[in-house]
Amino acid sequence: MGGGREATLRAFGRVAKPLLATELALGVDMGTTSQDIKLIYQGAELPPPGTGLTQQEKDGTPLEDHATGYGVVVAAKASCEFAGGKLSGATVAIEGFGKVGGGVASYMAAEGARVVAISTIKGTTYNENGLDVKRLLEKRRKTGDRAIEEYQDAQHLDRAALYSLPVDILIPGARPHVIDKNNVGSIQAKIISSIANVPITEEAEETLFQRGIISVPDFISNAGGVVLGTTDRIGGTAEQVFLGIRTLIRPITIEILDDARRKGANPHSLAVNRARERIIRARKGENPDQIAGNKWQFLGNINRDNA
């Protein structure tokens, strides 16, 4: 297709218009920006949904840079509590230092965790005593991806080394299936809370469970962006986004981990089956709130608060 990226995005919007005109909403992900989303909706001749909450700034960056990362940290903290430990003082390795990875690093540091490793496509930067997250974020604003490479007080390792480092918490943050049968045996982390979609193969998920490693299902740990988008569409506020993330992700994480322990099945397979059953029952016309319980009703409460 000719015309470059902008023309392609507009063309996609024209084709997807019947879906975009209903309940489907788009959001940024790997390789896309908010401007890309605007172009798609322009192609569909539709206004972007929501009030622009995703672009509202917090600490100098758009809210969309915060929500997913905050949710990943909430899931990790809940997992630590489930395991009888604390997030404060835990060592953390993060794959990626873009918008979400930077948010994870920032919120981990705010919780008292020690970010000891960050990887990008250029490699892994590792200091067992901890990286200076604030300094790295400041440097990233000036030099972009080079911030990790130029960080001096650390070892510079191969990108794949991140997965086998002796840390408490591992955060896969980019590509699918980075943890598979070939490297799952080398993982030393006790908890995995993912940014990425499907970063672990089904086979590796089962191996992690058998090894006693807590792996939060990715579509639970990275659901903060969905909460942000939904809150935006119904006219909520930034404060309600963070409240919503805590209200949803923390109890659901603990619930699925507890179910996994009681039933002897890995959390990801249980979560997938539960989501599938919920979708089937919703299609039959059953009330989603009755299916999922009161913790799903926070969106309705936000809506009433802003009525």
Give structural notes.
By secondary structure, the protein is α/β, with parallel strands linked by helices. It folds into 3 domains: about 5-50, no CATH class; about 60-220, Rossmann fold (3-Layer(aba) Sandwich), CATH 3.40.50.720; about 225-305. Helix content is about 50%, strand content about 10%. The chain has 13 helices and 9 strands. It has helices at about 5-20, 35-45, 65-80, 100-110, 135-145, 145-150, 200-210, 220, 225-235, 240-265, 265-285, 290, 300-305, and strands at about 55-60, 60, 90-95, 115-120, 125, 155, 170, 190-195, 215. The strands form 2 sheets. Strands 6-5-4-3-7-8-9 form a 7-stranded mixed beta sheet. A hairpin with a 2-residue loop joins strand 1 and strand 2. Residues about 290-305 have low confidence and may be disordered.
